[in-house]
Design goal:
Elements (H helix, E strand, L loop, with lengths): L2 H4 L14 H6 L1 H32 L5 H50 L2 H6 L2 H43 L1 H48 L1 H6 L3 H53 L5 H42 L22 E9 L7 E10 L4 E5 L6 H8 L7 E6 L2 E2 L5 H6 L1 E4 L10 H5 L8 H10 L3 H6 L17 H15 L3 E5 L7 H15 L3 E5 L3 H6 L2 E6 L2 E6 L1 H7 L2 H11 L16
Parallel strand pairs: 3-8, 3-9, 6-7, 7-8
Antiparallel strand pairs: 1-2, 1-4, 4-5, 9-10
Helix pairs in contact: 3-4, 3-6, 3-10, 4-6, 4-10, 6-7, 6-10, 7-9, 7-10, 9-10, 14-16, 16-17, 19-20
The structure holds adenosine-5'-triphosphate (ATP).
């Protein structure tokens, strides 16, 4: 998301909250229940001053105790109605808030899952998580508690004003004249609260993003004695969030003080007039009492409304941040009329004059006219110095990004013309940094095929040389492996990833060999697992091991985003070019199993 757009102020203060309206209409039952119970509660409250007037003007002067009994029984009934209506209001309104925010969270998450790699190149995951949690919570309190208070006070305020007019049109006209004086400044304050609150949420998200990163990397932080600097960086992020939140709160306090002074000030002024009318006998004491209660209701609810306005403005800041995610358009989307890929899949891959620069680094071309073709069933090794563009080839094939120029074809079809889901069905990847989810071993292997049977998962694990170690775990395939698979060794994680790819059984395998050295036994096991996986399918492997290049049908040597040499190990060694240099480096350093990543000058 373009960051500069984030700060664009919307013209109207609480407009971003309109996002929740479609959700509101989805739950009409709850919304109607809330509205009805709100109305009943407010109407009941409004009848109380009527009773007070009757008591003052008639009740105490009348010695008929029957009248008093009926009167107080009625009041008791009213109290029970008020209590029940308030309880129902609370239930409906809070449930509605929870319901809407659950839906909103789900929709925002679903949208985030669809976004392209380029989005995540520039946005931090912790920042996004903060939107899903902190911002959504603010909206929940706005929709739930705040909206309920707002509606109740709005009804109460309008009702009280109506009753004021009914009680004394003369005094009411004075009150009504004061209202614009109060409302307009309130709206202005509300806008400033929204802006500040948005800033506070941005700051909080930045702090969360940093916390997420640091917590995920505690081992590295500790290894480098970085606790102190991490602590102080997080501390200042939190401090900045606090300052921004305080600024928002300050704006809200000013708003509240202003509102209460104005509202009660005008009530006092009006009553002053009223008191003179009573003295002049043109108004009964009971009527002034009734008017007084209604104006206190009206003033109280206006005061509450001003506070609610502050809260709604704050929630609008949060809604704005969620809207940005909801409105984010994935860069890679299925075409409107996707071309069907040929069936059965053959596993052919072709790059034709592909040029590409990462969106986060538009001036640097990672691929510069890359062309090659891989026949169905062929095993092709890609080698080259660090930064040559090897991993980029995989990202392009998986269509994380689209090329600036040129065409990529899978099974003869341009990848841009097909549904990305159909394309990715045909590809299985074993990345260098294996992703393990904090769930069971079974679910990790079955990640691409969630309905796979236990037998199928087991068969894949056996083929990936993983069954034995899984059997030794506490609960076998049901063992939870911890976040990012922390309870597993590097080799074990890799074999789980291989089992995942075996289970997916896609016609094209993308393999990014791990550079990290495994112990000899793990190495042999991983190698065996890969041999199984590579059988009978097209394999593109970013190779770091001699064994792998020796086994490949063909080796592509990449440098600066294009192919510079091509052939078998022997023919390339004979050519004496870049490959020969890379290979020599490896032998010179005696690391038989590893390709050295960059062709540094050979030391004498
Ligand atoms: N997400 C990204 N955003 C911007 N630039 C990137 C991104 N990923 C890679 N690059 C750049 O693109 C170039 C090619 O990177 P790539 O990862 O494809 O290299 P590689 O050959 O796989 O290197 P290595 O062997 O070190 O993994 C590098 O210069 C790298 O800095």
């Amino acid at each position: 998301m373009p960051r500069q757009e984030k700060q664009t102020p919307a013209r109207r203060s609480i407009r971003p909250l309109a996002t929740v309206l479609p959700y509101l209409s989805r739950y009409r039952g709850l919304a109607i229940g809330a509205a009805v119970s709100l109305t009943i509660a407010a109407a009941t409250t409004l009848t109380l001053p009527l009773a007070v007037r009757r008591m003052i003007d008639h009740g105490f002067s009348n010695s008929d105790s029957g009248f008093i009994n009926t009167y107080f029984s009625m009041l008791m009934v009213l109290a029970v109605v008020l209590a029940l209506a308030s309880a129902a209001r609370y239930y409906f309104v809070i449930s509605l808030g929870e319901r809407i925010v659950a839906d909103l969270r789900r929709d925002v998450f679903a949208r985030v899952m669809q976004l392209s790699a380029s989005f995540f190149d520039v946005n931090q995951s912790g920042e996004i998580v903060s939107r899903l949690t902190a911002d959504a919570t603010q909206i929940k309190s706005a929709v739930g508690a705040t909206a309920s208070v707002a509606l109740r006070n709005l009804i109460l305020c309008l009702g009280a004003m109506g009753m004021m007019v009914y009680t004394s049109p003369k005094l009411s006209s004075l009150v009504l004249a004061a209202i614009p004086l109060i409302v307009f400044p309130l709206v202005g304050f509300g806008r400033s609260v929204r802006r500040r609150s948005r800033e506070a949420q941005d700051m909080l998200a930045a702090a969360s993003a940093y916390a997420g990163e640091a917590i995920a990397a505690t081992r590295t932080v500790q290894a480098f004695n970085g606790e102190e600097s991490a602590r102080s960086r997080y501390g200042s992020a939190v401090e900045a969030a606090y300052r921004a939140a305080r600024a928002a709160t300050r704006a809200r306090s000013v708003l509240t003080a202003f509102a209460i002074t104005m509202v009660f000030g005008s009530v006092v002024a009006v009553l002053w007039f009223g008191a003179r009318d009573v003295l002049a006998d043109s108004l009964s004491a009971g009527t002034l009492g009734q008017f007084l209660l209604y104006s206190v209701f009206a003033a109280g609810s206006l005061g509450a409304l001003s506070e609610v306005w502050g809260e709604l403005s704050q929630a609008a800041g949060a809604a704005e941040r969620l809207n940005e995610l909801l409105n984010e358009v994935p860069e890679i989307e299925a075409p409107e009329h996707p071309v069907a890929m040929p069936v059965p899949a053959t596993g052919a891959v072709e790059f034709e004059n592909v040029h590409f620069a990462y969106p986060a680094r538009p001036d640097y071309k990672s691929l510069r006219g890359l062309s090659f073709a891989v026949r169905p069933g062929e095993t092709v090794a890609i080698v080259g110095p660090s930064g040559a563009g090897k991993s980029t080839v995989f990202s392009m094939l998986l269509r994380y990004y689209d090329p600036a120029k040129g065409t990529i074809r899978v099974d003869g079809t341009d990848v841009r013309a097909v549904d990305p889901e159909e394309l990715r069905e045909r590809l299985a990847i074993v990345p260098q940094d294996v992703t393990i989810f904090a769930t069971s071993v079974h679910d990790n292997i079955a990640f691409g095929v969630p309905d796979a049977s236990r037998e199928a998962v087991r068969a894949a694990a056996v083929a990936a040389q993983a069954d034995e170690f899984i059997g030794r775990l506490d609960r076998g395939y049901d063992t939870l492996v911890g976040e990012r698979g922390v309870t597993l060794s590097g080799g074990q994680r890799q074999r789980i990833a291989i089992a995942r790819a075996i289970l997916k059984n896609a016609p094209i395998l993308l393999l990014d060999e791990a550079t990290s050295a495994l112990d000899a036994e793990s190495e042999t096991l991983v190698q065996k697992a890969l041999d199984v996986l590579m059988q009978e399918r097209t394999t593109l492997v970013i190779a770091h091991r001699l064994a792998t290049v020796l086994k490949a049908d063909r080796i592509l040597v990449m440098e600066h985003g294009r192919i510079v040499e091509e052939g078998t190990h022997e023919s390339l060694i004979r050519q004496g070019g870049l490959y020969a240099k890379l290979a020599r480096l490896q032998f010179d350093h005696g690391a038989e199993a590893l390709f050295v990543a960059s062709p540094a000058p050979i030391s004498p």
